[in-house]
């Protein structure tokens, strides 16, 4: 599917009992043609209406990112969620603050986003998806699929339960697992230079690292595919891992474009561009002639959506670079962009994230280099 710049996201959620068996629905619509581009609808266990509504919003924003949207108009019949996202209403409940934070993190990755309230009769598509999800949630609890005295009794029983149960219970179903591999070493890696869109090959040590990666990953069961950044150092690493099958190139996995800073050392950049570098790190401004962190994150999340839709429930080896991998880690952990500066990823390291259909992501491994023990150039 080609990227669509401007979309409308309609989202809804609800529970049978408040709290009770809950689900959400979301639909992404081309703002120009009215074509439905994506839809999401999932049960989320036992929750309140508000948790379900926020879950629908989050799923809708993720779906909008997956189709490449840059401008998003969010429409919901939840006055509370709309006003809280606009900042006109305070968020007092801790669980709501967490959910709003998740939605805000996703919203920041679009060039433009708006939130507006619509009456329920104009939100019928998302409402239908949410009700179908609530039916599945109720059936999963052995409960009637329509609200009744039984669900009212369940509500009184569950009033003392924590609001955000999915953060504690094990996720359901088979995940799509991404094995995130940083490419092997190059001359820039050895000298700790800013290495963005250059065409440097692996050095001798990097080639030895790639062989160690292949031996490690061949013991992993159920690998559906190897995908790679288009840059030479990543493609060389992926070719060794995937041999004899070809690796699939995913453009969105390329390293951030450092522009004028390409190939320079940190001290040189800070000395020559002190104001610009501070803005790059602190204010999410693009590097001169290059990209910003938000631009990098946006295309990386689009690549993630493509991989998830192409290999649902499979294990995919993703060969990429420091910044795209950190962007995926921040997204999976719902961590702010600043967390990128607190992560370290070695060349040829492995990190693993599981993505579940219900919207839950789980970090399983970070910067593992056990396979590199004894590797020399």
How do the helices and strands follow one another from N- to C-terminus? Answer: EEEHEHHEHHEHHEHEHHHEHEE
Query: Can you tell me the CATH architecture of the largest domain?
Result: 3-Layer(aba) Sandwich
Stated plainly, the CATH topology of the largest domain is called Rossmann fold
Shape, per Cα inertia axes: globular
User: What is the C-alpha radius of gyration, as a whole number of Å?
Assistant: 22 Å
Q: List unreliable stretches of 5+ residues.
A: 147-167
Number of E-type strands: 11
* Residue-averaged pLDDT: 88
Measured between the Cα atoms of the first and last residue, the distance is: 42 Å
Question: What share of the residues lie within helices?
Answer: 25-40%
How many domain modules? 2
The total of helices stands at 12
- Please report the first level of CATH classification, the CATH class of the largest domain: Alpha Beta
Quaternary structure type: single chain
User: Beta-sheet strand percentage?
Assistant: 15-25%
How does this structure look, described?
This protein has helices at residues 49-66, 79-86, 94-107, 124-140, 149-158, 187-191, 204-217, 232-242, 266-272, 274-282, 293-310, 322-333; strands at residues 6-15, 20-30, 36-47, 71-76, 112-117, 176-182, 223-228, 248-249, 315-320, 350-355, 361-368. 38% of the residues lie in helices and 21% in strands. The strands form 2 sheets. Strands 8-7-9-6-10-11 form a 6-stranded mixed sheet. A 5-stranded mixed sheet has the order 3-2-1-4-5, with helices on both faces. Strand 2 (20-30) and strand 3 form a beta hairpin. The radius of gyration is 22 Å and the shape is globular. The chain is built from 12 helices and 11 strands. Residues 147-167 have low confidence and may be disordered. The protein has 2 domains: 6-167, 2-Layer Sandwich (Nucleotidyltransferase, domain 5), CATH 3.30.420.10; 176-372, Rossmann fold (3-Layer(aba) Sandwich). With 377 residues, it is of the alpha/beta class. The two termini are 42 Å apart.
């Amino acid at each position: 599917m080609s990227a669509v710049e401007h979309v409308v996201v309609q989202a809804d959620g609800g529970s049978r009992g408040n709290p009770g068996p809950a689900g959400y629905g979301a639909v992404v619509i081309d703002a120009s043609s009215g074509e439905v581009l994506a839809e999401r609808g999932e049960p989320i266990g036992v929750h309140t209406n508000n948790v379900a509504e926020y879950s629908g919003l989050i799923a809708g924003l993720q779906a909008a990112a997956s189709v490449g949207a840059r401008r998003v108009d969010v429409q919901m019949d939840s006055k509370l969620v709309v006003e809280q996202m606009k900042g006109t209403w305070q968020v007092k409940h801790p669980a709501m603050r967490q959910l709003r934070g998740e939605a805000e993190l996703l919203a920041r990755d679009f060039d433009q986003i708006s939130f507006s309230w619509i009456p329920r009769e104009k939100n019928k598509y998302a409402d239908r998806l949410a009700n179908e999800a609530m039916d599945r949630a109720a059936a999963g609890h052995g409960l009637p699929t329509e609200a009744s005295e039984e669900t009212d009794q369940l509500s009184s029983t569950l009033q003392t339960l924590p609001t955000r149960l999915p953060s504690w219970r094990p996720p359901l179903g088979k995940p799509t697992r991404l094995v995130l591999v940083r490419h092997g070493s190059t001359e820039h890696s050895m000298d700790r230079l800013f290495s963005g869109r250059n065409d440097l090959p692996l050095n001798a040590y990097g080639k030895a690292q790639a062989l160690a990666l292949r031996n490690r990953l061949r013991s992993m069961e159920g690998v559906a595919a190897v995908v790679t950044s288009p840059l030479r150092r990543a493609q060389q690493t992926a070719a060794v891992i995937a041999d004899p099958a070809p690796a699939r190139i995913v453009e969105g996995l390329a390293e951030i474009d450092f522009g004028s800073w390409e190939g320079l050392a940190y001290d040189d950049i800070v000395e020559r561009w002190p104001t610009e570098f501070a803005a790059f790190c602190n204010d999410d401004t693009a590097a001169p002639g290059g990209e910003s962190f938000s631009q990098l994150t946006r295309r990386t999340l689009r690549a993630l959506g493509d991989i998830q839709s192409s290999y649902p429930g499979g294990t995919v080896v993703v060969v990429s670079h420091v910044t795209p991998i950190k962007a995926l880690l921040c997204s999976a952990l719902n961590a702010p962009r600043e967390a990128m500066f607190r992560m370290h990823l070695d060349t040829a390291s492995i990190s693993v994230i599981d993505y579940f259909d219900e919207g839950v992501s789980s970090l399983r491994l970070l910067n593992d280099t056990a396979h590199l023990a004894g590797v020399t150039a």
